């Protein structure tokens, strides 16, 4: 494999000592280390994967690391985003990561891009880097980064994590298939779980982040066999990995322009605020917030298990025009969440603001929420409109 980056200047004695344990690796040596020092790597996302991969890149000797993210650190991030701490809550994630890198190696140059990547700004940003690592958590960004990297013919190392499983692959136009060849179309928005709604094992982030960093080192230095045309799937529960091989279809069309990726992925302006996670709902209930829980399942399901204080209003009655008679923010739930999503769409079409419980009562119970059983005392509704 041809190294992606030419070697930089000869290493100073301090650098030789710092990297002595990797300089002695077979096939590595000072030439490889000088390539790392001369390299420029863009990392998309400063969350679970970004906060795992960036410190490894810095420690390995990458000369310039760019970090692109428009988010701030929240308390719910800290269980898995290990480069951020309590003192960073409220700070920009890019700034927090830059502080982490400076603590590892003050000579590593960190470029922060505190913005939401788009078709308008990514090509110019990407032009300053040798390769890009995508650790984003949404499909519009994944397709945007893939297409921009394909048009620039720069290697993209992508990773994804959810619950107990992670995936890693390389997309490189002209050298093998791309992310679009593996996933020609995004999943429907209602089936695209995020870490917020689906959960993620914290140890999965550094595991997959290490895979991402390793692929970057291999590409830059020209050692090993990169994951081109292959996807590495890691299952934390079984402590196993498997490989999926794929190729570019014969009728695949090259990417020639960047598009509206929110539209391509079926995202709407209110898509981000229609769901509430089980953990968020439990926290808000325990805080005593004024919430109106609407259970849209059938009576036999409700009597078997329901969240205390819920109003029973079956989906069929909502679709027939009956509205809940309740005060407070409406949160609709069912066993998982398909019926609740339908109910929320129906309510919103009638001008009633409502959200649905992602994962339904099953997820609520899994995170420690209380459920009761027994006969339903009453049904509180308004007549059909």
Description:
The protein has 385 residues and is of the alpha/beta class. It has helices spanning 13-18, 20-23, 29-38, 50-60, 93-104, 122-126, 139-152, 179-182, 195-198, 204-221, 261-264, 278-286, 299-304, 315-319, 338-349, 360-366, and strands at residues 40-44, 64-68, 109-113, 131-134, 156-162, 165-171, 230-235, 240-245, 275-276, 291-295, 311-312, 323-324, 329-333, 354-357, 381-382. The strands form 3 sheets. An 8-stranded mixed β-sheet has the order 3-2-1-4-5-6-7-8, sandwiched between helices. The chain is elongated. The mean pLDDT is 91.
Describe the structure in brief.
The chain has 16 helices and 15 strands. The chain is α/β, with parallel strands linked by helices and 385 residues long.
Topology:
Elements: H1 13-18, H2 20-23, H3 29-38, E1 40-44, H4 50-60, E2 64-68, H5 93-104, E3 109-113, H6 122-126, E4 131-134, H7 139-152, E5 156-162, E6 165-171, H8 179-182, H9 195-198, H10 204-221, E7 230-235, E8 240-245, H11 261-264, E9 275-276, H12 278-286, E10 291-295, H13 299-304, E11 311-312, H14 315-319, E12 323-324, E13 329-333, H15 338-349, E14 354-357, H16 360-366, E15 381-382
Parallel strand pairs: 1-2, 1-4, 2-3, 4-5, 9-14, 10-11, 10-13, 13-14
Antiparallel strand pairs: 5-6, 6-7, 7-8, 12-15
Helix pairs in contact: 4-5, 4-10, 12-16
């Amino acid at each position: 494999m041809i190294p992606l980056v030419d070697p930089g200047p000869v290493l100073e004695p301090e650098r030789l000592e710092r990297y002595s344990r990797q300089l002695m690796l077979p096939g590595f040596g000072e030439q490889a280390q000088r390539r790392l020092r001369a390299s420029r790597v863009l990392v998309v996302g400063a969350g679970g994967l970004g906060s795992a991969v960036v410190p490894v890149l810095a420690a390995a000797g990458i000369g310039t690391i760019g970090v692109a993210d428009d988010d701030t650190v929240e308390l719910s991030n800290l269980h898995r985003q290990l480069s951020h701490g309590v003192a960073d809550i409220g700070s920009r994630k890019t700034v927090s990561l830059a502080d982490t890198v400076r603590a590892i190696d003050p000579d590593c140059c960190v470029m922060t891009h505190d913005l939401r990547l788009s078709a308008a700004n990514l090509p110019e940003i990407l032009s300053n880097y040798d390769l890009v690592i995508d650790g984003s958590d949404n499909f519009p960004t994944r397709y945007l980064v893939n297409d921009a990297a394909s048009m620039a013919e720069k290697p993209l190392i992508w990773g994804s994590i959810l619950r107990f499983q992670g995936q890693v692959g390389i997309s490189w136009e002209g050298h093998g298939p791309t992310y679009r060849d593996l996933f020609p179309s995004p999943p429907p928005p209602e089936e695209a779980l995020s870490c917020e709604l689906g959960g993620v094992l914290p140890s999965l982030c550094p595991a997959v982040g290490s895979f991402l960093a390793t692929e970057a080192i291999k590409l830059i230095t020209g050692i090993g066999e990169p994951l081109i045309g292959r996807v590495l799937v890691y299952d934390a529960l079984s402590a196993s990995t498997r490989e999926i091989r794929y190729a570019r279809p014969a009728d695949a069309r090259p990417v020639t322009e960047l598009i509206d990726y929110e539209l391509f992925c079926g995202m709407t302006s209110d898509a981000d605020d229609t769901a509430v996670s089980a953990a968020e709902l439990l926290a808000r209930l325990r805080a005593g917030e004024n919430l109106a829980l609407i259970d849209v399942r059938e009576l036999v399901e409700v009597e078997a298990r329901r969240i205390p204080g819920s109003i029973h209003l079956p989906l069929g009655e909502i679709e027939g025009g009956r509205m809940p008679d309740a005060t407070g923010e409406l949160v609709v739930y069912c066993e998982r969440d398909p019926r609740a999503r339908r109910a929320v769409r129906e309510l919103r079409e009638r001008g009633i603001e409502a959200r649905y419980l992602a994962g339904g009562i099953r997820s609520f119970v899994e995170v420690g929420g209380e459920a009761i059983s027994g006969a339903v005392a009453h049904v509180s509704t308004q007549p059909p409109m």
